[in-house]
Amino acid sequence: MAYEFKIERSAAPKVKESLRGSVFGTRFTDHMFILDYDKGQGWHDGRIVPYQPITLDPAAKVFHYGQTIFEGLKAYLTQDGRVLLFRPRSNIKRMNLSNARMSIPSIDEELFLEALRQLLVVERDWVPSEEGTSLYVRPFVIATEAVLGVAPSHQYKFMIILSPVGAYYSEGVNPVSIYVESGYVRAVPGGVGEAKTAGNYAAGLQAQEEATAKGYSQVLWLDGVQRKYIEEVGSMNVFFVLGGKVVTPALNGSILHGITRDSVISMLRHWGYEVEERQLSMQEVADAHRNGTLVEAFGTGTAAVISPIGELYWQGEAMKVNEGRTGDLSQRLYDELTGLQRGEKEDPFGWTVELKD
Amino acid sequence: MAYEFKIERSAAPKVKESLRGSVFGTRFTDHMFILDYDKGQGWHDGRIVPYQPITLDPAAKVFHYGQTIFEGLKAYLTQDGRVLLFRPRSNIKRMNLSNARMSIPSIDEELFLEALRQLLVVERDWVPSEEGTSLYVRPFVIATEAVLGVAPSHQYKFMIILSPVGAYYSEGVNPVSIYVESGYVRAVPGGVGEAKTAGNYAAGLQAQEEATAKGYSQVLWLDGVQRKYIEEVGSMNVFFVLGGKVVTPALNGSILHGITRDSVISMLRHWGYEVEERQLSMQEVADAHRNGTLVEAFGTGTAAVISPIGELYWQGEAMKVNEGRTGDLSQRLYDELTGLQRGEKEDPFGWTVELKD
User: Fold this and answer.
1) Going from the N-terminus, what domains does chain A have, and what CATH number goes with each?
2) Considering only residues 222 to 241 of chain B, which have any Cβ-Cβ distance to chain A shorter than 8 Å?
3) Where in this protein does the record say N6-(pyridoxal phosphate)lysine is found (chains A, B) (predicted)?
4) Cα separation of B126 and B163, whole Å?
């Protein structure tokens, strides 16, 4: 085998409790993967160790200058006991795009896939079987060099941690209400909006909190230059069914290259839908609402998969979408995509990858 | 005393070596300050402990969602053995502005000042005496709650670490050459550009690296909307002497509220200079260069204090400023400000604060 990782097994495995009512991302498995980087030496010393706190110098660059990226994907247990991953190679490709943008050295694709495979083999029993659950996989890189100076780090840690999860939103697949944000801006062309880097998420917290206080679950971000064009919803990509077409904002440099977004586009086209990736103004959506041609709206992301939008609040007006109910297309996409991810539906796209021991 | 912090002294103090030739921000003193935050309990358990690695869950929010802020200030040793701090109350005020923007609970000003005082009393012997050196103070807050979900953390650590430093740039007070960045964008109105948060610094790394590869020390950032108006230089504010006036970009929401910037404006006005805080286009600076009215340019920041600009590269044109030499006003500001900071010059502004045991 090309990659030999040292494996240290936990002496005190945790009890695997039911995920009913659990909060997303609060439980972790017994082991994690770590890989170190030192300038001159490259990535080295890949190892699987018991899940445990990590120890960093207080001057580590991640704390001060935010040089970090992450990924997110899910592993599912099929009814016949196989473990399926959804498009893991897309995650490592995107992770290296994020790495390049954040001046972090790239990680070999095969090494990533083998690390993920070996970790999941060790943690196979942690892939949950309850309805609507999965094992959320969080690979991430942090800059660890202890220097107070703004420059790329000479040392990093790449880690993979695993969290057994239920639904991301407490609403589940029920429609969420969305506040269209006209004041705060998430990203701008020339910035880091399309990288999965920590700072993009920190930048959205205040708007998110203010929207929550107004009774909305998520924020819809408009472009940072003209504040007219739709970018993302919270930490998801967003789609609108306008008349007979499905429209989603084009990848313009400030929008995340969502893997669920890409999957939804492929699936819709496979079903014969016309999908437009283009600039889409909030005004166009509001006009469609007024004309009765705004049929559905939904967010897409690894955590929630498909999140129907039941209401959009923009400039003083609350617009109900599909009378606040989950739309047929949102439901069909959710069912097909999660069915395919769990091996219960056909996968004509070759997206699922079975875990091999 | 209002704030009683537990003090644990290091059993193995380090040797204090000469700072000649040392790299900024790579050495740390024997102790650090830590304060914890838990939702419902508030900030608690302030303590001074030996400088040591910190231990965090790999799911700590700072690694994934970048919820963190920092500050920077300096302590100086006077020739008669006193320790002077420069405008520390401005730092805690700005820190709480950053905290508010990043949805981090604010920190009591008096607690901050007392923590800083007690830590500096313990570390008094670490304030270096060599020419051009100081003790750099780095307060920072990191989100420590171990949850993979995009929402403000329920737990934080506030820490102060100390680093004895020489010059920030290897050029010292010699002029730096600056690449005016037309492609990458640092910040945008509605974003987090005026917060001292990690993500703003990570966002600048790639542009900085590319500028370095072209032979430039720093990047000059233009506004993210029109890409016309000057914002900052690297991690400094920037000033231009245009004819008889001094011009600096106004605080517009995406520019850092520099304490050195504010000090320079006050000092210049005190000396009778006309200072304009306004929108300033790069075209206006280039025109001034062509007309011979671009007299000087310099950056201002805590780390470098005053950093003269010897060359600006913009749209294919390399513009020498003051024939590439340190300008008279840059030198005067550097001498007066560092003289005042070290207690060698009069302080008509009441900026220096003496450390009381």
Assistant:
1) 6-165 (3.30.470.10), 176-341 (3.20.10.10)
2) 224-225, 227, 234-235
3) 196
4) 9
